[in-house]
Amino acid sequence: MDLRAILMGLAFAVMWSSAFTSARIIVAAAPPVSALALRFLISGLLGVLIARALGQTWRLTPTQWRATIIFGICQNALYLGLNFVAMQTVEASLAAIIASTMPLLVGLASWVLFKERIGALGFAGLVAGVIGVGIIMGSRLQGGADLYGIALCVAGVIALTFATLSVRGATSGGNFLMIVGLQMLVGSAVLGVVGLTTETLEVTWSWQLIAAFAYTTLIPGLAATLVWFWLVNRIGAIKAATFHFLNPFLGVLIAALILSEALRLWDIVGVAIVTLGILAVQLSRQKAR
Length: 289
What we know:
Elements: H1 3-27, H2 32-53, H3 62-86, H4 92-99, H5 102-113, H6 119-142, H7 147-166, H8 176-198, H9 207-235, H10 237-241, H11 247-259, H12 265-288
């Protein structure tokens, strides 16, 4: 892995982790599903226009269309939609921690469903991840965390895990920027229907809301997705996923700095264990490959 890939991986981790903090600001002032639908509409149109300017086409292969639809529904509509709704009652740091378990769930599913060898290090990482999440959940539930919001976050990360397992290798045929834009438009269409039928469009306007929405649309929404696909194409999915081990720590840190969310002792212990667990699983899968 070269220096450029390392720097891009670090940038991805920061952008991805910051999305929960900006989302928390948005859902405090606007209907979550409708706001997310608008975000994906803008990000998707920008992605498609840039892709067309670069000469990419929307005439995708059947595998790429499958990836576009699955990711649009599972990642954008379900994973992010459920997280946006959850963050009306769940702190950004807790949502980030739950979402960060995705590499652990992918490793577990790959081992159980696809018989992928993960070795002793990987198994130890899975166990550590479960222990770390248990410590965090126990601490947060004692502190009065909302069970319904937690359940939505868990359902969301399961949907993201399914999408990740379903579309492995789907961008190998090129046009990855076009795929990114189109899957955002798929998510926007699904969320738009849900938002219009279930939400009242009441918005409390402020400069914080506008800044958070613009940041979420352009940075975690578009830039982080592009960097992720660039990493996957450059160093492979297994090595790229190693950067996810930074997400629990960064998600908690950014939420504490910007939203002044409390840093509890058991949160720090749990995050450290989950972080090491994710790293162990990814290193084990990388070694097995």
